[in-house]
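call fold(seq) -> C-alpha cells
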Amino acid sequence: MEIARSKELESWAEREDIQQRMPGFKMGMGFGIHQGWAIECAVGSEFKIDATYLSPHVNMASRLESATKQYGTKILISGPTFELFSQEVQALCRIIDRVTVKGSENPIALYTYDVPLQEGDNGGGVREGNGEIQESNGHDSWPDTPSKTKYNRIPPLQYFLTEAPPCISQSFRMLHVQAMSFYLGSSDCPTDWARAAQVFKQCLSVKPNDGPCVAILKYIEEKAVDGHAPESWKGFRPLEEK
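ret:
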C-alpha cells in the first residue's frame, strides 16, 4: 500500500527514459498469503549458500502471489488461511474464485482484501463499526487517525481499519456476492453463468475495472457454451497461470 502511494516511486516510474524502455511501466507489488509447514534450510555450495524454505505451502503462496496479476488485485488469500481469520476480519474479505493449482487436485477458494491505494481512498466505500458493515455516501471519512501515543490503547482491528479501510462499497459487496453465487453454484444457488455475467457487469458499473470481476467475466465469456457453464463445470477451475 505504501509503495502504491509513494509519490517518489511514481515519479521515477514516469521518467521518460524508463517509459521509453518499458512503455506503461508502473511500480507495484502483489502478495500471496497461505499457511502451512515449511522446512528452513541452507541451499547452495561452498561458494555460495542461501537460506530458503521448502514446502508445498511455500509453492502455493508463490503461485498466489503470481496470480495477483491475473486477478488484478494486490492480495490473494487462500481458503485455509481465510478460515483462520476472525469473523470480523473474514467480513472484510471477499471470495473471488475457486481453483486448483498445478500439482494438486483439491480446489481451494481464493479471497482478496481490497486495499486502498490512494490517500483517503474508500471508493465510496464502507465504514466498519463494531463488526458491522454500513454503506458510506462516498464523502464520509474514516475515524481520524489517533496520535501515536494512543496506538497501544486501540483494538488491533479498529487501528487497522483506521489505517487501511477496504475500498469497496456495501452495494458493490452485495452485488459481488450474488455474482459469485451464480458463477460457482451451490445447493442453494444453481450455477447460472448468464445471470452471473449480468451481475458481474453490474459490479463493474459500480467499480469500473475491478480486477477480479474482469478476470471472471473474461473466463465466462471464453468458456461458456451458449451462455451457460459447460457440462464439465464442477464449481472450480484450474489456475492456468503460475
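The beta strands are 31-33, 39-44, 49-54, 75-78, 94-100, 108-112, 126-129, 132-135, 237-238.
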